[in-house]
Design a protein that fits this description.
heterodimer; A: 218 residues; alpha/beta; Glutaconate Coenzyme A-transferase; three-stranded mixed sheet; 5 helices; B: 231 residues; eight-stranded parallel sheet; 6 helices; 14 strands; 19% helix
Chain lengths: 218, 231
């Protein structure tokens, strides 16, 4: 079974040299720690930066330099700064190669819910709806089940929708899943020590399995 | 022609109860701190505030919530604010939540004289309720309208007497669009430089949009999530 860092490490393997990538808050942010050597990617922050660098040391902290999660950051050489309108123009215009974000639910046709729980204080969707409506490639990083044990890979989302038919791939602690164009979660890989039956029992939506499924080595 | 003012109060005194304001900033970065302070002192009420966030309890627009000067917030994300939550749950505050890119573009459209545009963001969600949709090349888009304000308060890094501005880092965020979409636009800066010193190649906001320029001293620049590397 993968921990949060394991999920992030697995997603990092999807990165390709030259990618422009937007990482959401939470597990997605951890992906930046596992970018494979020899691969250069440029991280986008939707408030208005291409080229997020590591977190600063104490003397480098700059209140005028934060990421979309409002954390203090640094910039890599070759960064560029722009307004939030320009930032979402590059998102909406399909110029960002990969978006990684968290979710509360994903349906078997790729719908995603991740911004609102009825009965709970609504904080807002931030940039999530813009990102999922336009991204060419969306990978969701999330736990397979909710805290009360309910599957988050569903036939239909039960929570308010963030975007329709947009998720391409999901990485959970149990495995890697592709959302098929015709609907259904294709099991691509399972985490080390996780059996297909456990994945089946944890997945409410249609799970598709083809042949023997690759088991991750770590 | 100098747009420089040494006191914000006479300008802020022109803001009327019920006006719509735009306030720059993302989180606590790039906030017009001195304008917010002047608005607090003015006591003007029933404001509709367009700003990506609503500050925190004791900084930014959070301060104007505490004094009950805000009737409605138009934002994309309003977390991290207990007083905001209390007023919202008690029905004392109206909130319109807008996807962040749509918010940015609606403001940009307001400044650019474009009354409406189509975006894919929010299609199939509750954001789309009651809005016109249209299909272009097989994909559905949502019609969104421009946003304009009676006053815009923005924060830049450097400015000159002609109102030309440059911003620093990610404190730019919503400030450039808001600077174009207010009937009256007040820019506050950390430094005023002589006209001619800003390289025209690197001006972010041309002075045409700015009515008044104010220099603030010792910005607090509160950090919401101070995050440092472990090594």
């Amino acid at each position: 079974m993968l921990d949060k860092n394991g999920i992030a490490r697995r997603i990092a393997k999807e990165l390709k040299d030259g990618y422009y990538v937007n990482l959401g808050i939470g597990i997605p942010t951890l992906v930046a720690n596992y970018i494979p050597s020899g691969i250069n990617v440029v991280l986008q922050s939707e408030n208005g930066l291409l080229g997020i660098g590591p977190f600063p040391n104490d003397s480098e902290v700059d209140p005028d330099l934060i990421n979309a999660g409002k954390q203090t950051i640094t910039m890599i050489p070759g960064s560029s700064l722009f307004s939030s309108a320009d930032s979402f123009a590059m998102i909406r215009g399909g110029h960002v190669d990969l978006t990684v974000l968290g979710a509360m639910e994903v349906s078997e046709n790729g719908d995603i819910s991740n911004w609102k729980v009825p009965g709970k204080m609504v904080k807002g969707m931030g940039g999530a709806m813009d990102l999922v409506a336009s991204a060419k490639n969306i990978i969701v990083a999330m736990q397979h089940k909710s805290k009360d044990g309910k599957s988050k890979l569903l036939k239909n989302c039960s929570l308010p929708i963030t975007g329709l038919r947009c998720v391409k791939k999901i990485v959970t602690e149990l495995g890697v899943f592709e959302v098929l164009p015709e609907g259904g979660f294709m099991l691509l890989e399972r985490a080390k020590g996780v059996g297909i039956e456990e994945i089946q029992n944890s997945t409410e939506g249609k799970l598709k399995i083809s042949g023997s499924v690759f088991e991750m080595e770590e | 022609m100098s747009k420089i003012i040494s006191n914000l109060e006479p300008i802020v005194a022109q803001v009327k109860d019920g006006d719509t304001l735009m306030l720059g900033g993302f989180g606590l970065s790039g906030l017009p701190e001195y304008s917010i302070d002047a608005l607090l002192k003015s006591g003007v009420k029933n404001l509709t505030c367009i700003s990506n966030n609503a500050g925190v309890d004791d900084f930014g627009i959070g301060l104007m919530l505490k004094t009950r000067q805000v009737k409605k917030m138009i934002s994309s994300y309003v977390g991290e604010n207990a007083e905001f939550e209390r007023q919202l749950l008690n029905g004392e505050l109206e909130v319109e939540l807008i996807p962040q890119g749509t918010l940015a573009e609606r403001i940009r459209a307001g400044g650019a004289g474009i009354p409406a545009f189509f975006t894919p963001a929010g299609v199939g969600t509750e954001v789309a309720e009651g809005k016109e949709t249209r299909e272009f090349e097989g994909k559905t888009y949502l019609m969104e309208h421009w946003l304009r304000a009676d006053f815009s308060f923005v924060k830049a890094w450097k400015g000159d007497a002609m109102g030309n501005l440059i911003y620093k880092g990610t404190a730019r965020n919503f400030n450039p669009m808001m600077a174009t979409a207010g009937k009256i636009v007040v820019a506050e800066v950390e430094e005023i430089v002589p006209v001619g010193e800003l390289d025209p190649n690197f001006v972010h906001t041309p002075g045409i949009y700015i009515n008044y320029l104010f220099k603030g001293e010792n910005y607090e620049k509160r950090i919401e999530q101070r995050t440092v590397s472990s090594n």
